[in-house]
Each structure stands twice: as C-alpha cells, then as structure tokens.
Amino acid sequence: MASPLPITKAVIPVAGLGTRFLPATKAMPKEMLPVVDKPAIQYVVEEAVAAGLTDVLMVTGRNKNALENHFDRAGELEAVLSSKGDSEKLQKVDYSTHLADVHYVRQGDPKGLGHAVLRAKMHVGREPFAVLLGDDIIDSRDPLLTRMLEVQQREHTTVVALLEVDPSQTHLYGIATVEGTDEDDVVKITGLVEKPPPGESPSNYAIIGRYVLRPEIFEVLERTPPGKGGEIQLTDALQELATGPNWAGGVYGVVFRGRRYDTGDRLDYLKAIVRLASDRDDLGGEFRPWLKEFVGTLPDEDGGWQGGEDG
C-alpha cells in the first residue's frame, strides 16, 4: 500500500450568524469574541498549526471581515507599538499575522455544515484534510487533533472526535454507534444519527467539532439531500462512509477524555473564560484567590448568603 498523503490542510467553517450572542454579534463575528485575551478563532487556528496543519481555509459568510483583518497585517497598530518600544504587544500582534497561511471562501447560502465543507472542495483537492469547528476549544495540553491525524495516517480512513456525554444531552449532538478496537481511545463507527430524539439515542458517544476526512467526502456530500433543519448534514454523509463500500475506508472515532471548552452558548462561554484564565501562568496566581473569595459571597440556591459578615 502506498504511503498516505501527508495532511497539511485545515478547514474552519465560520459562516454562522452567532444569534445566541446577540447583540454582541450584531456587528462582530462570534468567532472574534474574546476568550480571556484572544479571539476564540485564534485558539482553533493555533490548534491546527500545533498539529502540523499550516494551510487554513476559512469558510466565511457576510460581515466576517474582522476575521480576515485579525490574521492580516495591522500596519498602523504595529507602527504605534514599535514607536513606543512595546515589543511584548507587538509580538502578540505579529504572531497572529504569521500563524498560518490563511485563505477564505464564501459559503453563500447557509445550507448547513455539510455544505460548508463542500465549499472547500476546490481548495483541498484530492487530499485528506481536517475540519475544526470554532465553538469547540480543545486545551493545548490535550492534543486531540494530533491523535486523530495519527489514526488517519495509519488506518487510511475518516476519523471523527467523540465525547462521552450524559444520556440526557444526546439529543444535542450527532451520535455514533461504535465497536471497540485494540486501543482504548479508538473505536470503529458502524452508524451515525444527527440529534436523535430524547430517549432514542443508540449510544452516548457524541461527535464533537473535530474531523479528519478523506477527500471522498466531497462526492458523498454532493449527493446528500438536506436533512435535519433542511440543511446538508455532515453527519449524514459520514453515515454513508461508515456503512458504505470499503473504498471509503470506513469511519473511526477517537474518544476524547481531555479538557474541552464549549464557547457555543453564553453559559459555557463564561465557564471557558474562567477555566482558561484560572490556568494561565500570568493570570491564575491572582485570579484564583479572587475567584474563591468572590464565590464565597454568592447566595445559596435557597437565596441565603454564604461567606462572612459582609454577606
């Protein structure tokens, strides 16, 4: 068997409207909302680059110019910082400019994740590639994508990231039916269903926002009809690869048990900021004691107050 093609390309769909964060996202892409002091999208690009993927395609929509600006030169800002001798901030600004070779394509009509991935066909060509969704931030200390790339290169197959979720949450995710392998964190996927009704989920293995796809996914997506919500669902195309002919290589899953921060809704976004700030070397030392003190002043669920005399 020929050696697999090295994977160098990452596709990041960023065309969503971010309606759950209105009015903040009225004029700002949700991917640019700050998580501590970096926009959420930068964490995702940094993850791709750390895994060796330096060719990044963002599938954008209207009013996403701020994304392009963030990864472009900021000549005036750089000049001001340079004149002030503020090398630390200048380095941070310059870092995002040279982080990766970033390209952009418009999705046009919002026809779902499958359609967004299909828009990458001309850029990707006949190579395997990764897809990273911006709502999921994976802690850099738990390199999920690197592990997925390793499995893909060994098995020559499509690989998705899986997370074991509480059974009460399965209706919020695409869910996989799986078979075990010789490795504790790798499973063979035998079926997929997008957001099954409560009580009808085949398992609690949820698909989270990381995929390593073979290029055959494009021809499958081209014939995949609209599914849930009238959109072209990537899960439906993966279902065909998982249960179809062997030429597609099947679908494997890497079960992730590390730290994941969901920035897709307001509550989890706040939790992500607190958790990441608490772990920062430059912030955690002061932030954690303040946080403990602040939590001590919060009311109990019954409306009473914790803490000392000032409560």
From TrEMBL:
Residues 9-275 form the Nucleotidyl transferase domain. CDD domains: UGPase_prokaryotic (cd02541). It catalyses: alpha-D-glucose 1-phosphate + UTP + H(+) = UDP-alpha-D-glucose + diphosphate. Coiled coil: none annotated. It comes from the Bacteria. GO terms for molecular function: UTP:glucose-1-phosphate uridylyltransferase activity. The keyword Nucleotidyltransferase applies. Belongs to the UDPGP type 2 family. This is UTP--glucose-1-phosphate uridylyltransferase. It comes from Protaetiibacter mangrovi.
